[in-house]
């Protein structure tokens, strides 16, 4: 079983959206039983909260359900549990690299590393409008296309 963890700042906007997108895409492609997906935040600002209402609305408009997800904070054990720990931006990536225990097995990278794009980061839409959430969704969807292709190649899915 391949395990993927999406990481953003508070786990209420970008990473739960990415979790929902990848789960839906894997289900459509018949890979849901081969890959598990989770998300978390590097900060403790929103532990126990649901995703931002704007993220929920954007996901629903794309037939993706993230309503029941609950924010949690990155834990040391995540570096051993997950094969891929994928950050939304350089700041999140720096925290992952800083907290990563020596010898941990998880591959740490930016989610956008898997996209066919010059854009490296998925911007935080928290202080943005609904349009910001739509743009974030599009970037995440694009990156998940590349991520699934990589998982297929690397793991023979």
TrEMBL record:
Signal sequence coordinates: none
UniProt cross-references to Pfam families, sorted A to Z = LMWPc
Which SMART domains is this protein grouped with? Answer: LMWPc
Ranges for domain Phosphotyrosine protein phosphatase I: 2-150
Single GO molecular function = protein tyrosine phosphatase activity
Q: Which UniProt keywords apply?
A: Hydrolase, Protein phosphatase
* Active site annotation, chain numbering: 8, 14, 124
Residue ranges of coiled coil = none
| EC number in record | 3.1.3.48
| InterPro entries recorded | LMW_PTPase, Ptyr_pPase, Ptyr_pPase_sf, Tyr_phospatase_low_mol_wt
Q: Does the keyword Hydrolase apply?
A: yes
Keyword check for Protein biosynthesis, yes or no.
Answer: no
PANTHER family for this protein: LOW MOLECULAR WEIGHT PHOSPHOTYROSINE PROTEIN PHOSPHATASE, LOW MOLECULAR WEIGHT PROTEIN TYROSINE PHOSPHATASE
* Protein family per UniProt: Belongs to the low molecular weight phosphotyrosine protein phosphatase family.
What this protein is called in its record is protein-tyrosine-phosphatase
Species annotation: Kushneria sinocarnis
């Amino acid at each position: 079983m391949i395990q993927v963890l999406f990481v953003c700042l508070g786990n209420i906007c970008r990473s739960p959206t990415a979790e929902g997108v990848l789960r839906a895409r894997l289900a459509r492609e018949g890979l849901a039983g081969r890959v598990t997906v989770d998300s978390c935040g590097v900060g403790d600002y929103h532990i126990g909260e649901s995703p931002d209402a704007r993220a929920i609305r954007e996901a629903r408009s794309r037939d993706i359900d993230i309503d029941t997800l609950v924010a949690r904070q990155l834990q040391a054990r995540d570096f051993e549990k997950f094969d891929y720990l994928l950050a939304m931006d350089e700041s999140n990536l720096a925290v992952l690299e800083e907290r990563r225990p020596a010898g941990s097995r998880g591959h740490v990278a930016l989610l956008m590393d898997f996209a066919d794009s010059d854009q490296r980061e998925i911007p935080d839409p928290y202080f943005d409008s609904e349009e910001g959430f739509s743009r974030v969704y599009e970037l995440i969807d694009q990156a998940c296309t590349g991520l699934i292709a990589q998982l297929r190649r690397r793991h023979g899915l």
